[in-house]
Structure formats: C-alpha cells, structure tokens
Design a protein that fits this description.
zinc-finger, repeat, Immunoglobulin-like, about 500 residues, transferase, zinc ion binding, alpha+beta, 3 domains, about 35% strand, binds 2-acetamido-2-deoxy-beta-D-glucopyranose, zinc, four-stranded antiparallel β-sheet
C-alpha cells in the first residue's frame, strides 16, 4: 500500500516540478522583457494550455486509480473494525478479473458459478484471501437470487448462486464496494439448457476481462474499419477535433476545433474539402466544437468561443449566424425533424431550439442534477420520434426529452461497468432508435437500445480510443467518432 502511494506521490511531485519549471520560465521571459522570447513562450505555453484545457482527460484514469486506493483503505478499515485483527489485501476492483459461464447466462433453479481472480494495482495476481466482495443479481425491483461468495484463500473467489426466475438481469460484482472491471454484467436466465441456445447477439465485452487462458468467453473482436488523421494543421490532419456529422450524400464532416475549420471526407475516408477562417467576426470560426448538416444541405457549426452558431452553405460559403448574444458556450448542434436547430449550450446548461432563421422556438434546462437540469451538457441527437437526446457530462448520464423539452427518461451513472459512464460526450441515434454514446473518460463507445438498456460496446481493443468526443452515423450505417486525444477520426461497424 505504502509503495503504491509513494509511487503516486513521486509522479505528482514530478509533474509539479515540471509545471513550476515552465511557470518560472514564463515568468523570466516576461520579466526579461525580451519580446522575441515572450512571443516564443507565449506560443508554446498557449498551445500547451489550450491542448490541456481541451483534452484534460488523460489525467482522469489517474484520478480513478487514486479513488481505488481510497476505497482500499476504507475496506481495510472495515476489516479491522469487523474482525478485530489486521487483515490486508492489495486487491483492487479495476484490475480484478471475472470469468465463468455464470457471468452471461444460467438456468432457473440450477447452481451457477462465477470465478473472481483478484489482482493488485499493477495487474499481478493476489495470492491471499480475505477481500470483501459482494455480489448481487437483480432487477430494478430487487434481488432475484440466492448465493454466496466462497473465499478460496488464494486470491480466487467463487460466487455460487441460483436464480429464482427467468429474465434478463444485472449481475453486479463489487470489491470493497467498487464495481469490479466490467460489472454490472448482463445476465440472461432461461428455463432451457443454456447449451441448446445460441449466444445472445450484441453482448460484447472487452477481451481483457476474460483472459483466463483455457477459455475465452468473449474473444477480442475488432470493429474498427479505418482511422484517418494525425496531429497537425494540414488537410486530413487535426488538432483537437470535436464534433462529427454525416450526411445522406455520403460525407463525413469534422469540426477541427483548434485548427478553426471544418474538414469534409467521403464515407470511405478520402479527403474532400475544408473551410473556415480563424477569427471573431461573423463568418469566421474561433473554436468550432459541434457540426450538423441541415436537410437542405447547409452546414451548421457551434462555435464555442464566438458564442454563436454559424450557418454555411454545403460549399462552405457563410450565410448567417444564430444565437448571438444569447448563447454562452455552444458545444453540440443537431437538427430535428422539423428542420429546427438544436443547440447544446454547455456553459449555460441549457438546450436551445432555433428556427434556421434564428428565431428561438424554445429552450429548456438550467444548471443542476435534476431531471430537467444539466451538469455540463455536451452533444445532442434526435431520434425518429423527434425526441432529443442529450449527454450530461458531469452527471455521467444521458437524458431524453420530447420536442417541447419535457423530460422522458435518463440512463447512466458514474462508473466503468456496462452502461456506466465517466463523462459522456458524443451521441447519435440509428434508424432502429439505438443510442450510441461516446464515453470520454472511459475511452470507449457504448450502444444502448431506445429505452437506455445497455446492448454492447463498440470494441476498440486493437487501437484504443483516447478521449472520444463527437460521433455520428454514416449513411452506410457505420459509426464515425472523433478520437480527440489521438487527433484522428475512426469508423466502426457495430451490432453485427
Ligand atoms: C515543461 O517544459 C519541459 C521542457 O520544455 C517539458 O518537457 C515539460 O513537458 C513541460 N511541462 C509542462 C507541465 O508543461
Ligand atoms: C486457488 O485454489 C483453488 C482451490 O484449491 C484452485 O482450484 C485454484 O487453482 C487456485 N488458484 C490459484 C490462482 O492458485
Ligand atoms: C431478454 O432479452 C432478449 C433480447 O436481449 C429478449 O429477446 C428476451 O425476450 C428477454 N427476455 C425476457 C424474459 O425479458
Ligand atoms: C446525477 O443526477 C442525479 C439526480 O438526477 C443525482 O442523484 C446524481 O447524484 C447525479 N450524479 C452526479 C455524479 O452528480
């Protein structure tokens, strides 16, 4: 425990030293009054800061690690309290692996088994028992299983359980009150023999979860079709790309935020064109974060820093702006079935609906954690019923409203399990009403049905995402996502 904390402290101290070093460099440059040095420093530091500000994410996993650690201490305290003797284990939930048939399916009334292999912070197998593990098979209504955790005293535990009734349930496994990697799992309980049924389609999980060598429950599948781009300022290169749109004419549009432009590609990834001039006047772009295509072909761009939404023709000719003087920080845009422009104002925590003329139709939302409130909304999508789907970044949830802004449903909570989020960003809806969400802090994409039930991940094992932002569905039915931290966009197949 001490060595883990020490390592973390060392890392933090190193980072502090680097920041101090750069601060004093900047200070010296400013004091010295050498204009050339100031200019040089200004550029470097400015770029670093804007990159840090817009990405921020890479730090997130480290924070999570630290949280794990706190929980571990909590668990220890509990052990000490309960047993009156000091019991230690270095098992952490985020590394611990689970396997066994009982994870996916079982038969009513028959004993099922799940094997839990505890691992420490760096992924090494734990060799001793005594960790506090809990398991729960439940519906929203409550628990539906009897079972117990058996401590094999060598770091491995078995959860043996029997379910009372047929149905689709959630199986939650926690170590020191924290979800074990991949938890909660989706469990299908049948009355037939499980062997006679084909495996449920659409339930995919990360391959690393099931790394028991003799039996791969879910082999690594890779849904990636291609990726385009590297960090840079030229055509086909990106600097902190954010929003993504796709249009029926087979085009993919990317809001290349720190390059102040929009780049357009074909569905197969060929560069087509780009437009955008940096600036703060109408027709110029300062920080394009959201992009959408109107059914009439116009390209709609949310400009976070100019605090308005710009409309360009399909050829990139400036036409008009809307929301000026009203919007505080527009991040995502979408277009509803009436051709209205949906704008997600991240700073104001409000969703605005405009006519393309700029006339306000309605608005809803304020800052908060209530159903009709937002704690940092990012992107919007509209489904076939003209319902509006909003990602709420700091509430770690997705909220659905009707066209009048009445709350319909929400799903998601903070965590790493199936259906949980660590700051959701991009969102899109397919023709079947399935909702696809970029899970920024967990660097993954999740697919839900229209009622918010988790269906699958879009797998990224071979070439992982790093802080995904906007996403959209291409006209040929693939998912295109802005892989912001990797400065590229990626196209995936899904639910196949
Ligand atoms: C500070 O500057 C050094 C040298 O340019 C660089 O390696 C380091 O990453 C910088 N650190 C931060 C926090 O910007
Ligand atoms: C732990 O003990 C069980 C039962 O004795 C055994 O089957 C299993 O292989 C052991 N696991 C490890 C990792 O040693
Ligand atoms: C469980 O989910 C599957 C689809 O995922 C569905 O076909 C089946 O009817 C569901 N079973 C119950 C009992 O709800
Ligand atoms: C999200 O909002 C719900 C209420 O709708 C609240 O219970 C929950 O604590 C919020 N989550 C976070 C992480 O703020």
């Amino acid at each position: 425990l001490l060595s883990v904390l020490q390592a973390q402290l060392d890392t933090l101290l190193q980072e502090e030293a680097a920041i101090n070093y750069n601060c004093s460099l900047t200070g010296e440059a400013l004091d010295g009054g050498n204009k050339a040095v100031i200019l040089q420093t200004h550029k470097d530091v400015g770029e670093r800061l804007s990159d840090l500000a817009s990405q921020g994410l890479p730090l997130q996993p480290e924070e999570n690690d630290q949280l794990d650690l706190m929980m571990e201490i909590e668990g220890l305290r509990k052990s000490i309290h309960n047993l009156g003797t000091i019991v230690t284990t270095n098992a952490v939930a985020s590394q611990t692996e689970v396997s066994g048939d009982g994870l996916e399916q079982c038969v009513v009334g028959q004993l099922a088994t799940v094997i839990i292999s505890t691992r420490d912070k760096s992924g090494g197998l734990c060799k001793t028992g005594n960790a506090i593990i809990s398991a729960e098979v439940c519906t929203p209504g409550g628990s539906v299983a009897d079972g117990e955790i058996v401590d094999l005293k060598n770091g491995t535990y078995e959860f043996q359980y029997t379910v009372k009734k047929e149905g689709n349930f959630s199986l939650a496994l926690r170590l020191y009150d924290q979800h074990i990697k991949g938890s909660p799992f989706q469990l299908k309980v049948t009355t037939n023999s499980p062997g006679s049924r084909s495996r449920q389609k659409g339930v995919r999980r990360g391959g690393s979860l099931f790394s028991t060598p003799k039996k791969k429950v879910n082999p690594i599948e890779d849904d990636l079709i291609f990726r385009i781009g590297t960090k840079g300022r030229n055509k086909g290169e990106f600097t902190n790309l954010q929003g993504v749109a796709a249009c029926s004419e087979g085009k993919i549009l990317i809001a290349d935020s720190n390059n102040q432009c929009v780049q357009i590609f074909s569905n197969t990834g060929e560069f087509h064109s780009r437009f955008g001039v940096r600036g703060r006047s109408p027709g110029q772009l300062q920080r394009p974060t959201g992009v959408a295509v109107h059914p009439n072909g116009d390209i709609i761009i949310a400009d976070y820093d100019n605090k308005w939404v710009s409309i360009f023709s399909s050829e990139g000719k400036y036409k008009a702006k809307l929301g000026s003087g009203r919007l505080m920080g527009p991040k995502g845009v979408s277009v509803d079935q009436n051709g209205h422009v949906i704008v997600v104002d991240n700073k104001a925590c409000t969703v605005f609906i405009f006519q393309p003329s700029g006339k306000l139709v309605t608005k809803f939302g304020s800052r908060g954690n209530g159903d009709r409130q937002f704690a940092g909304p990012h992107f919007a999508a509209v489904n076939n019923n003209n319902e509006i789907i909003i990602t709420d970044f700091h509430n770690h949830s997705v909220k659905v409203f009707n066209a009048d802004g009445e709350f319909l449903l929400k799903f998601g909570s903070n965590g790493e399990g199936n259906g949980q989020f660590n700051a959701p960003t991009g969102v899109a809806v397919d023709v079947n009403g399935n909702i696809i969400v970029a899970d920024w802090g967990n660097s993954r994409i999740q697919v839900f049905d229209g009622s918010g039930s988790f269906l699958s991940y879009i797998n990224t094992a071979a070439d992982p995402l790093y802080g995904p932002q906007g996403l959209a569905l291409t006209s040929d039915g693939h998912v295109v996502v802005a892989d912001s931290g990797n400065h590229c966009f990626k196209v995936y197949r899904y639910l196949q």
